[in-house]
Amino acid sequence: MKTLIKCFWVFILGSFIGCLVEEIWCLIKNKCFQIRSSLIHFPLIPIYGFAALFILIIADKVGYSLWKIFIIGVLVATIVEYLCSYFQEKVFKTKSWDYSEFKYNLNGRVNLVYSIGFGLISMLVIKYIKNFEIYVSGLVNNETFIRVTIFVFVLFILDVITSSIACLRYNSRREGIVASNNVERFLDKYYPDNRVEKIYNNSIYVG
Question: Three-state SS across 53-101?
Fold first, then answer.
């Protein structure tokens, strides 16, 4: 239980940092603020959370030397990014990134330059994430903290479910499928096209 709690909060921290980095990068690159969250309600990008968690677990086993963290960061981020891109395309029929214009890319899902960038970022933040894990370790026996963790976990799962079905319903509307039940009508009312498109503004429908 204690290990799961620590893993969950490392995942949440990594997801939040990833979202923050993406939005700062977007602000620098496009000169405007754009939402980069993967979820409708929480400012989180789970792909970064998974990467942070896997990197931390592996770093715990092989040590925290910078060159090891760099290599781990490159490999883990590349694998996670590729799998997430494949999953998004197959399940939601969309792409949030395409690296086809980069010289060293694999099916447009990953590219060498960004993979190296993830490795460098890993070097910069992994020890802070480790310190965060140690901080959380001191709270795992606190009943209030456990309740907060359960509460946040439930909200996170609900957001994942809501975001997923809202995106699936959005694709159905693209294909001209009329709402046939109360759930779909609810999604049409509270998660209309303009709201989904505002949140997933960098997402391209690939059919």
Answer: HHHHHHHHHHCCCHHHHHHHHHHHHHHHHHHHHHHHHHHHCEECCCCCC
Q: What are φ and ψ of residue 202, in 5° steps?
A: -105, 10
* 3-class state of residue 111 by DSSP: strand
Structure tokens belonging to residue 72: 């781990």
pLDDT of residue 207: 67
What would the pLDDT profile of 41-68 be if each residue is shown by its tens digit?
Answer: 999 999 999 989 988 888 888 888 888 8
Is-contact 14 53, C-beta < 8 A? yes
Interhelix angle 66-92/143-174, nearest 10 degrees: 40
The reported pTM is 0.87
Contact 137, 147 (CB under 8 A): no
Task: Give the separation between CA 167 and CA 188, rounded to whole angstroms.
Answer: 11
The C-alpha angle with vertex 105 and arms to 81 and 18, in degrees rounded to 5, equals 30
**Alpha-carbon distance 59 to 40, whole Å?**
32
Query: What pLDDT score was predicted for residue 206?
Result: 75
Give the integer Cα–Cα distance in Å for 157 and 72.
28
Q: At what angle do helices 112-137 and 2-30 cross, to 10 degrees?
A: 140
User: Given this model, what pLDDT does residue 116 score?
Assistant: 94
